[in-house]
UniProtKB/TrEMBL annotation:
Belongs to the NAD(P)H dehydrogenase (quinone) family. This is Flavodoxin family protein. Keywords: Oxidoreductase. Residues 1-203 form the Flavodoxin-like fold domain. One of its GO terms (cellular component) is cytosol. Residues 231-252 are annotated as: Disordered. It comes from Corallococcus carmarthensis. The lineage of its organism: Bacteria, Pseudomonadati, Myxococcota, Myxococcia, Myxococcales. It comes from the Bacteria. Transmembrane segments: none annotated. GO terms for molecular function: NAD(P)H dehydrogenase (quinone) activity.
């Protein structure tokens, strides 16, 4: 199987660097093909701007998403963007390795998403009509792939519980899990998390190593987060969860399939594009 690791940390000797190196060694030893996008080492350009397009309309006002759609369609994206898109299409699984900074991913990794997930590639695909709103949230270009976050966090685990002061980790990671990975079709595994990263002692590393190896071994077999597919019949024509669904949950958890929910049945694509 092919696995892409997108790694975002400026220090190779960090815990993130150690986890990235461990994943590369362990997966390769198990016969997997692994590629690493080391964003800091690559000097990844995090800013989405007109330089991302090789043939911009001179003097025209920049509408980034429209420009990205045209550039993707006609092959005039900058080479770094096209290369990362090719890696995503090559991969059977994607691991995002990063520290939780200010409750989200580092800016360089967000910039990777902003630029690589172009209109026509990761979003804006499929036909609209009725209860169907394009191919997204469980469908799309990256369907059939798995994704997992490997995240280091400075705080303690209780801080990120339902009643913890920082909020539940599932809620903090929802924009990435649901909005970045599930949106273009990937099945998303629960995250691997290392807490108190700045205080990890040498004698604690073996337990972290063993836990991470176990998660890597289950990359293609562990159960994924049971997000509701958009075109499953669970959402109405306004893309709002239908009455009677999600009643036993709150917040972002209403978008997880629950026991007793009706089977998710695909909503067929319209015979012609909706307005």
């Amino acid at each position: 199987m092919n696995i892409l690791i997108v790694y975002a940390h400026p220090e190779p000797r960090s815990l993130n660097g150690a986890l990235k190196d461990l994943a590369l060694r362990h997966l390769t030893a198990r016969g997997q093909e692994v590629r690493v996008s080391d964003l800091y080492a690559m000097g990844w350009k995090a800013i989405a701007d007109g330089e991302d397009f090789l043939a911009p309309d001179s003097g025209e006002r920049l509408f980034y998403e429209r420009a990205s759609k045209a550039a993707f369609a006609n092959g005039s994206q900058s080479a770094d963007i096209a290369t990362e898109q090719d890696k995503l299409l090559w991969a059977d699984a994607v691991i995002l390795q990063f520290p939780l900074w200010w409750f989200s991913m580092p800016a360089i990794l967000k910039g990777w998403v902003d630029r690589v997930f172009a209109l026509g590639f990761a979003y804006g695909v499929g036909e609209h009509g009725g209860e169907r709103w394009g191919d997204r949230y469980g469908e799309g270009t990256l369907t059939g792939r798995r994704a997992m976050l490997s995240v280091t966090i400075g705080g303690r685990a209780p801080h990120y519980s339902d009643r913890g002061v920082n909020g539940a980790l599932d809620d903090l990671l929802f924009p990435i899990h649901h909005g970045v990975l599930f949106y273009p079709g990937m099945d998303v595994l629960p995250p691997f998390v290392a807490y108190q990263a700045d205080h990890l002692k040498d004698e604690q590393w073996p337990s972290v190593e063993d836990a991470f190896k176990a998660r890597l071994d289950g990359l293609f077999t562990d159960e994924v987060i049971p997000f509701r597919r958009q075109n499953s019949g669970h959402y109405d024509g306004q893309q709002v969860l239908k009455p009677g669904l999600g009643d036993g949950a709150s917040g972002t958890r209403i978008h997880l399939v629950q026991r007793g929910d009706p089977e998710q049945r695909p909503v067929p694509a319209p015979s012609r594009p909706g307005r």
